[in-house]
Amino acid sequence: MIGVVYTTFMDMVAERFSDEVLDEILDDPGLSTGGAFTSVGYYGHTDMIKLVVRLSQITKLPVDTLIEAFGEHLFGVLFGKYPTLAEGRSSSMELLEVVDTAIHVEVLKLYPNAELPEFRCERLEPSVLHMEYRSKRPFSRLALGLIQGCAKHYGETLEISHESFDSEEQYETHFTIKRIQ
Fold first, then answer.
1. Which of 31, 49, 97, 114 keeps 20 to 30 A from 4, CA to CA?
2. Crossing angle for the helix pair 140-154 and 63-81, nearest 10 degrees?
3. Phi-psi region at 143: left, alpha or beta (left = phi > 0; alpha = psi -120 to 50)
4. Whole-angstrom Cα distance, residue 149 to residue 75?
5. DSSP SS3 for 113
6. Cα separation of 56 and 50, whole Å?
7. Which residues contact 171 (CB under 8 A, 6 or more apart)?
8. pTM
9. What's the CA gap between 110 and 118, in Å, rounded?
10. Phi, psi at residue 164, to the nearest 5°?
11. Quick one: which of 102, 75, 91, 99 has its CA closest to 4?
12. Which DSSP state fits 155?
């Protein structure tokens, strides 16, 4: 995973909980980096899982809730840093449809070693999008949070249902996203 994801997570923890909580999760002896992450580094996804699980233990909030909240937060941060990625797109559906074909292309220019998930989209109706998430990492809830962050960015209300089809080789979740307003 690219380091900016880690540093954004750490910023969110400090902002929403406290610097003390951040210090406590970074003190986990099981972290491969000893708790040191930089925005330009590349790290294995298991450290992120350990950080979120530890945060869940401390805050008593469910892991899925924390990951989704982080996804929403991450969307806001990334589009604050890279607003050109949303240029020419006037709705969440328009942006979500081009995650692989436009956004991930730009991400790879900035982070050529990034291992990004794959998203396949099909517009079922003008206000309904079918989106398939595939990854080697178990972060479909992060994707859900990013979708929610996208809706928030455009001031839209989305109804999102999802079903997972995970296997030993791959994590796969199908999202049906319906714009309500």
1. 97
2. 50
3. alpha
4. 5
5. coil
6. 10
7. 133, 134, 135, 136, 137, 138, 139, 140, 164
8. 0.93
9. 18
10. -100, 145
11. 75
12. T
What residue type is assigned to position 116 of the chain? L
Question: For tokens 């900016």, what's the residue?
Answer: 4
Pair of tokens at residue 171: 């994590």
Angle, helices 19-26/3-16, rounded to nearest 10 degrees: 140
Place of tokens 């954004």: 8
* Residue with the two structure tokens 């002896």: 29
Tens of each residue's pLDDT in the chain, 181 residues: 889 999 999 999 999 999 999 999 999 888 999 999 998 888 989 999 999 999 999 999 999 999 999 999 999 998 898 888 888 899 999 999 999 988 888 888 888 888 899 999 999 999 999 999 999 999 999 999 999 999 999 999 999 999 999 998 899 999 999 999 7
Q: Which two tokens stand for residue 62?
A: 């469910």
Report strand pairing: 118-125 vs 128-135.
Answer: antiparallel
Amino acid (one-letter) located at 18? S
Residue 150 near residue 92, CB atoms below 8 Å: yes
Tokens of 106: 């730009």
